[in-house]
Amino acid sequence: MKNIDTLLNQALEQARLCGADQADAMISQSESNSALVRKGVIEGIKHSEQLGLGLRVFKGKKLALISSNDLSKEALRHCAERACAMADALPDSPYDGLPEASPKKLDAHAVDQLDLVDRETALDTKSLVEQAYEMEQIALDHKNITNSNGSSAGYGSSLTGYASTNGFQHYFKRTHFSRAISVVAGHGEAMERDYASHSALHFSDLRSIEELGREAAERALRRLNPKKPKTASLPLIFDRRVSPSLIGHLVSALNGAAIVQKTSFLTEKMGQDIFSPSVTIEDNPLRLRGLGSRPFDMEGNHTTHLNLVENGALKNWLLDTRCARQLGLLSNGHAVRSYKSMPHPGVSNVTLRPGSLSPEQLMNDVSEGILITEMMGNAVNLLTGDYSRGASGFMIRNGKIAEPLSGFTIAGNLNDMFARLEPGNDLFIEHIINAPSVRIDGMTIAGL
């Protein structure tokens, strides 16, 4: 493949020659390898490669996007011609366009400081198979673990480059490692399954094979012989494995597109207290080795740490340039896209900061409640905040975890849930959206 800078420059130059007033180009290259083992037998070996370039052209107030997997000079010329012809035929899009101010030059060390690339580890297929096989064997060695849904290991790398006619041009690389396993406990109709997984940019940060295999087995065994709870209003503890989904609903409600369209239950709540004062939620695209870290967004804006919620109060929307203009604001560097899509608001590394209480302390005064460890379905209305999901977990009695539960629904409204949310102190950074265990009182349980 040609030099990344050369390809980006060629795309922009062809856009200018075809009559574009402004243009930007994004290039994406990735490679991934994975192995899946089930019951000691290799069930899948996958290798994929992807390379593509997306070109946006602006002619007056008109806009068009075209993408291609052929990056030859002739192909880029055809892309530019077609994109400009498409723009001529489309209606005006007055809020689209490159950022008004020319972006500052990115510091030469900005990418390296994020440490997104593991330069010491590259795994071959044999190594991936061995990891998956060993992890499964560790889980299957537990008494009463009777089957496996599969054990997998993966490795990949990617490159993302962006350039625009207002002077910005840069790219960054990242590596990615993953392990996952799902097993079954019990026999006949009394079977339960559970899983464990982890992803990291550096191989040395990946949770061990032993830890993941053991966790999957122990979680499945704990779920055997579940009961169905009675319908009631109870305090719930959301395990840190499921609590990020609650913050995910907040992120969706803060998306600039939802605010512009007035389809978010938080549209009129900027500056208001929506959580207790103990809650701060941040998005940090500059986190060291963060899964979503990036030095710039996909409009060439530099990225910075942003508090979405600070001491309980709503502080910021998630904005790209288009949404910001519609709201009379400035972009806060949260434009994301693939090379095939238009920019839209998104997140990088979202974290609900931990509180002071351990999970045990969160449930210490709960005479009767439920620990939620898994949720299913997604009946969440972001216009009203109404919330309803299937769930499973464990009964809490007198501050202690009791029998396993399944087959029930939890319901409430996100406005009330956020206001009553109390974070624990067991934060572990392992996803794009991270949160410790949280407690929410007064949730409706639909069971027996």
Automatic annotation (TrEMBL):
GO CC list: cytosol
Domain Metalloprotease TldD/E N-terminal, first and last residues per copy: 23-87
Domain Metalloprotease TldD/E central: residue ranges: 122-224
InterPro entries with a match to the protein in the record: Metalloprtase-TldD/E_C, Metalloprtase-TldD/E_cen_dom, Metalloprtase-TldD/E_N, PmbA, TldD/PmbA_N, TldD/PmbA_sf
Metalloprotease TldD/E C-terminal domain sequence ranges: 233-447
Transmembrane intervals: none
Example GO molecular function: metallopeptidase activity
Name of a matching Pfam family: PmbA_TldD_1st
GO BP annotations listed: proteolysis
Family affiliation: Belongs to the peptidase U62 family.
PANTHER family documented for this protein: METALLOPROTEASE PMBA
Protein name (database record): TldD/PmbA family protein
